[in-house]
Amino acid sequence: MAELNDPPASATVNASVDHSGSLQIMLEGELDMANVPALEAKIATLISAAPGRAVFDMSGVTFMDSSGIAMLLRTAERVTAVEVRNPSSSVRLVLRATGLSEVLHVNP
Q1: 47 contacts 81 by C-beta, under 8 angstroms
Q2: How far is Cα 30 from Cα 36, in angstroms, rounded to an integer?
Q3: Pairing between strand 81-85 and 53-64?
Q4: Which tens digits make up the pLDDT trace of 40-57?
Q5: Are 27 and 58 in contact (CB under 8 A)?
Q6: Lowest mean pLDDT among 7-11, 26-30, 78-82
Q7: Nearest-angstrom CA–CA distance, 101 and 74
Q8: What is the pTM of this model?
Q9: What pLDDT, on the 0 to 100 scale, is given for residue 56?
Q10: What is the DSSP string of 12-60?
């Protein structure tokens, strides 16, 4: 169990634009209220440069709370389409439980 004064778990974001112009965003680590604001700021900058389609690869996400869900939904409002690819089992569980699998276009 984590101590209250432990530093927040880290998360990383790596992105590129593919040949079709889609923004490919790879997230790794834990998405929670401690780190989502910083991640979302990075993603917002990327979206401003390529506001078309955003594809999130979430195979490396080990935990996601409501902050991560909100980040995905806010991203969906700013682009033409959002897709979640390769969600980890914990992410898949959260998206199914919230009914967002269809809205966020989850692919295997």
Answers
A1: no
A2: 9
A3: parallel
A4: 999 999 888 777 899 999
A5: yes
A6: 7-11
A7: 15
A8: 0.85
A9: 96
A10: EEEEEE-TTSPEEEEEEEEESTTTHHHHHHHHHHHHHH--SEEEEEEEE
- With tokens 């869900």, the residue in question is 69
- Find tokens 């990075």 and name the residue: 42
Indicate the pairing of strand 23-31 with strand 106-107: unpaired
7: which DSSP letter? P
Measured in whole angstroms, how far is the alpha carbon of residue 44 from the centre of its chain? 12
CA 16 – CA 19 distance, rounded (Å): 10
Q: Which residues, in sequence order, are CB contacts of 8 under 8 Å at separation 6+?
A: 32, 34, 35
Domains belonging to the chain, first-starting first, are 12-107 (3.30.750.24)
